[in-house]
Amino acid sequence: MHLKKLALSAAAASVVGLSASQAVAQDTLFVPLFTYRTGPFANSGIPIANGMHDYFNMLNARDGGIGGVKLAIQECETGYKNEKGVECYDSVKSKNPLVITPYSTGITLALIPKASVDRIPVFSMAYGLSASAVGADFPWIFNPPATYWDGMSIVLKYIAGKEGGFANLKGKKIGYIYFDGGYGLEPIPLLDQFAKEYGFSVTKYPVPPAQMQNQSGLWLSVRRDRPDWMVMWGWGAMNPTAVQEAAKTGYPMDRFIGVWWSGSEDDARPAGAGAKGYLSLNFNAVGAGYPAIKDIEKYVIAKGNSQTPKGMVGDNFYNRGVMNSAVIAEAIRNAQRITHKKVVNGADVRRGLETLKISDERWKQLGLPGFAAAIQVTCQDHNGHHSAYVQQWDGTKWVKVSDWISPMKEKVLPLLYGAANDYVSKNQPWPKRTEACDDKTL
Amino acid sequence: MTHLLYGIFIDPFVQMGAAPDLLVQTLWEGLVSGVLYALIALGFVLIFKASGVFNFAQGIMVVFSALTLVGLNEHGVPAYLALALTIAVMLVLAFAVERVILRPLVNQPDIILFMATFGLTYFLIGLGELIFGGDPKVMISDQLQLPSGSYRIPIFGGYLQMQKIDVAATIIASLMVAALAVLFNRTRIGRALRAVADSHKAALSVGISLEQIWVIVWFAAGIVALATGIMWGARSNVSFALEIIALKALPVLILGGFTSIPGAIIGGIIIGVGEKIGEFYWGPLLGSGIESWFAYVIALVFLLFRPQGLFGERIIERL
Amino acid sequence: MLYREVGQYKTSYGADQALFPILQDRIGITVILLFAFVGVPLTASSFTLDSVLIPVLVLSLAATGLNLLTGFTGLLSLGTGGFMGVGAFACYKLTTFFPNVNIIVLILCSGFFAAAVGTVFGLPSLRIKGFYLAVATLAAQFFLSWCFIRIPWLYNYNVSASIEVPTKTLLGIPVTGPTASPVTRYLIVLSIVALLTLVAANLVRGRIGRTWMAVRDMDLAAQLIGIRLYQTKLLAFAVSSFYCGVAGAMMVFLWLGNAESESFNINQSFLILFMVIIGGLGSLLGSFLGAALIWGLPIVLRAAPAFFGLRIQSATAEQASFVIVGALIIFFLIVEPHGLARLWQIGKQKLRVWPFPY
């Protein structure tokens, strides 16, 4: 009887599934956006989702799309959960998506093996699997402008600069507080290697996802251990709680530096005056004074076509979302140029991403002068290992307090190649790259 | 091996002696979180005592009440009026729960009622997110005139840091426990509540209206949930992650017994302190992060020796 | 009048004790199995297979496991997610140690590891009952979640702390990994689920199932008539964890393709518990119905507005599905505490006496 209903429920479910697919118009550029507006990571996810969405809407309203073809945007709510991300992917993959932006390291890891089989590129901007920068092994994955390892080396360069040189790092103690998952665990090998090389010690403070808002015990340990510097790799609700706890414990904020994903205004603001001095990396500019963003305000927000609340425009993560969309738009333009087609597909956009070259002049043409460092992607290097700068919270806004710092490529690249080989050997049979290279570096 | 034994039996005590101010700080942190767990457990105990229902939705009631307060304030309602409105909302919720869930399920086995509160949890999660949005919110501590800042007391060569909001939370929790004790023992309604807790049928036969009592009890639990939500929210943001922290109230109930109010407080303090001390001194040995399960292990060990908890009634089963 | 079960005489004990004693049942199950094994692969879309059917089958196997423990033996367990994770990570380690063994054998073997872990966490069940046992299983859940991230050996020291599924083949056709087609994976999942459900059906109809139900109904009386309580409860934990472990291994290898510690957290346990509650405690059919409803409802809710031409955001659809699932649970508990399976039984009874009301 149960077996009978086993398949009866399967039949009922299949009817459900057949009705679940939605049609997308044929002559549009379909870009699905994986976002999370609910759940414990929503505070980070909402501004990015708004930024991404608004920029594409602006292109549609102001330019009529890209190359004259309108963009079709569809948000899929993942809640930062892997299963939901995979489900979103399955629901969009048959509709000819041009590129997937998972916005979660976990979901990216789940999609990496599927991307090359389904021929859909994955754009994981400065997150995801750092090793996917190796274009020969991961032809369908792109993660400019910098990897987590680049970021860690930039942080260490900044710390060394403040301490008076790498030689002065000897004997110092660096505390690493991180999200207890793939995202936070990834930089640890590089950190340990640097610790051995430069003679400083590393104390690790993992924050399990369920304990993100309950960090008082952890910061008590920080008070006991008294590290000279604290480095944070946090996301979602973990960030503001960490900053609040650090302020409460009295940890010197100007020695507390977070990665670019721990640098939202909403991460520092809840701690009030206590957060003053908190540092974070960044690779895009903050502020709404850019022509492209003014266009967004004019063409999208003023027309009521956006969910962005007042005051969010120009926030760090909003601009991060704008940059994400701007890079994708540029890749689509590249694809249209290379293939001489207006309505491109995923494989074309892969070539567009692989030949991505956004110079400072180009950023200016896009209406975002000085917004980000120049980006260059090649067949061999899907990342570019570009620079980032350090910003500091002054109590009300982020202020740039350093020049653009370049990562220590000579240390990062061997690790990267090693990790790529490790991934490929653990996931045999891994398909060998068959895609041709448009810029002849491979 | 000796390193492991040293780490378990000797090193933590050495550390305790070496930095006694940190020990006191850990104890204080444990006390504060214990008091907050106890507040959540108090809500459970209230409802269990009076209606025999294990209210799994207590955690989400904490979040929902805090969200209502902050959400109303965000829409321009002044803080104290928002507080009054939130209390009214919890009253409406109590009425709704009694009418929709408790009355139709009045004679069903306990497990069914328990699962109905599961459904209530999901319902409130979705409703809260729909109405107020899914992103974490900041508690309106300033508008509610809750103290901020901290005291720094130099002791033992170091210092003890006490957040003023934590002190306030402890005081408010004690006041609430005292008020509930007075309610239960000195008032007519309290007598009725105790009668209902003893036996529904006997209470009915002397004319106590079960429905009224249930509404009152769920309302009281709602007030406790609101107070807990304000305190928790003031320490860290108001978000749905709080709902999982509410699961920690279960070990508290195990220790204190399901039907005892002082038990909830003492159980809460034991769990809070035990958890913090365990994480601080023994945590690094196991790789840290053990706070997520240590409380349950404490409760489990306790259960093996005293299944009814410290203050609970001994369960006597008859055929 | 059309559906008559009478007039079918059994002439042997074997026929009387058969799993499907009535001809209509036999016809029904054959039709349905044919549809499931042949009809669905031919007609269903890739999205349906990947995101609806395979998850429903995998989750119904986990729900069957939980139903054996909570529905048939009366031991409330909130550790389902953890036991599924044990199965998944065990299967991963087995593929590392035995890369050339058939993946289906490895999936079934990983269930034994989950059974062992489940037995260990079931040890308190002698002294603890009811809600208190639920707390013990919660301890298991949180402890196992912690282990999955804190013991790097489990995920082969991957930097990302997640497990990726290698491509395995069966008779030359890839069955796991990104190159495996949804149809292949669906057929394998369906076969394993059908086989294990058959085993479960025989378990609950036999001596072991009856001892479980005796423990559930009144364990003191069961003890008095000679049932060994401890062994029965531990066996329930072991078998239930076996099913959850196999479900977990299938979830990673045949559905998602990768997993990390967060995939098996407390929310997964709650999800399976809801499926069991709504489907019906103590009914194998209920596991399937509950899984189909709980998993399918959010998908329908997400697709429904587009179907009717309304545009709502996917986040709103997500929240609305929470509200509706919660309301549904309460509704079902009020209307029919024994779940969808009981509703089906009532439906069949009505069918038997139609057009008369009773």
Structure report:
The complex is a heterotrimer of chains A (442), B (319) and C (358). Chain A is of the alpha/beta class and 442 residues long. In chain A, 43% of the residues lie in helices and 13% in strands. Chain B is mainly alpha-helical and 319 residues long. Chain B has one domain (19-250). In chain B, strands 1-2 form a two-stranded antiparallel sheet. In chain C, helix 3 runs parallel beside helix 7 (182-205) and helix 3 (46-72) crosses helix 11. Chain C contains 14 helices and 4 strands. The model of chain C has no long low-confidence stretch (mean pLDDT 89). The interface between A and B is medium-sized, with 33 and 35 residues.
Radius of gyration of chain A, CA atoms, in whole angstroms = 22 Å
**Radius of gyration of chain B, CA atoms, in whole angstroms:** 21 Å
Low-confidence stretches of chain A: 14-23
- Overall, the morphology of chain A is globular
Shape of chain B: globular
Q: What class, by secondary structure content of chain A?
A: alpha/beta
- The overall number of domains of chain A is 2
> Mean of the pLDDT scores of chain A?
87
Strand content of chain B: under 5%
| CATH architectural type of the largest domain in chain A | 3-Layer(aba) Sandwich
- Total DSSP helices of chain A: 15
Total count of domains of chain B? 1
Q: How is the biggest beta sheet of chain B arranged?
A: 2 strands, antiparallel
Which bin fits the share of residues in helices of chain A? 40-55%
Which stretches of chain B are low in confidence, meaning pLDDT under 50 for 5 or more residues running?
none
Structural class of chain B: mainly alpha
Cα(first) to Cα(last) distance of chain B is: 51 Å
Strand order of the largest sheet of chain B: 1-2
Distance between the termini of chain A: 60 Å
Biggest sheet descriptor of chain A: 7 strands, mixed
